[in-house]
Amino acid sequence: ASISEAANGMNDTPGMYLPAHVDGWKQLTEALHKEGCTLVAQLWHTGRMSHSSFHGGKQIVAPSAIKIEGGNGVQDAEGVEQEHEMPRELTMEECESIVNDFQRAANLAKEAGFDGVEIHCATGYLIDTFLQSCSNKRTDKYGGDCEGRFTFLNEILQKVCEVFPNRVGVKVSPDSGFNGMGSSDNHEMFLHVAKRLNDFDVAYLHVMDGIGPEANMKWWGKMTSNGFHGLCDPVELAALRPLFSKALIGNANYTADTANARIKEGNADAISFGRPFFANP
């Protein structure tokens, strides 16, 4: 769910920033709780993955004014395919305001009956672009070395974990090359992220580790690719496991057999599946 109107970047996606959103979500959470389900709301800001048509013509935003190159394009508010646009760099005050938007969204998710939230830090959305050196060239507290680029997520987690202690997940995609992402220091950066997440009252780390040199996947019906950026060694669950003591979840390109094998070897507590369950036939 988008954390604010400014976070939108796709048609027909849900929000978590208005009272009406809470009222709508309550119908879902109440019905699914009756079926014994545990519900986690994924919260996001699309950043430079958005298009100006979603924002009244205003320029899209990112940590730095760096355009997505070699991407797959973006659908505008009318559903028409467009080239990616040049974003403007967020001010420090705007960054701090977005941190508060994540906190507000978490509070609304709790009011709506969700049992936890997952912070979307993957696939070229806003937080991912703060984490990666290819998209973050800032010289203030939100940029620089690994710890500097972690600052934005750090501040978000401080706020959100107050709302949902031990009920917050973090999703990352360190190996994905889509949407202009992929950095030569990703191996170092995301091991740092895993280690730092131990400092927070989070429930799990959700890693799209199935994107890699050996993967073979169809994306958006447009291409077949392994999706790997190839700029450094892939970040594997086995490398993250010694650094992160809480639940570790793998994702992307798994089968039942490979998922069971990953859990059996002790490098994952669970494997998540998305497209096989909710994609259209």
Walk me through this protein's architecture.
- The chain has eight helices and twelve strands.
- The protein has a six-stranded parallel β-sheet with strand order 1-6-7-8-11-12.
- The chain is α/β, with parallel strands linked by helices.
- The chain is globular.
- The chain has helices spanning 19-34, 92-111, 126-131, 146-163, 186-197, 237-240, 256-264, 275-278; strands spanning 40-43, 61-62, 74-75, 81-82, 88-89, 116-121, 168-172, 204-207, 217-219, 223-225, 247-251, 270-272.
- The longest helix has 20 residues, at 92-111.
Condensed summary:
With 281 residues, this protein is of the alpha/beta class. It contains eight helices and twelve strands. 32% of the residues lie in helices and 15% in strands.
Topology:
Blueprint: H1 19-34, E1 40-43, E2 61-62, E3 74-75, E4 81-82, E5 88-89, H2 92-111, E6 116-121, H3 126-131, H4 146-163, E7 168-172, H5 186-197, E8 204-207, E9 217-219, E10 223-225, H6 237-240, E11 247-251, H7 256-264, E12 270-272, H8 275-278
Parallel strand pairs: 1-6, 2-5, 6-7, 7-8, 8-11, 11-12
Antiparallel strand pairs: 3-4, 9-10
Helix pairs in contact: 2-4
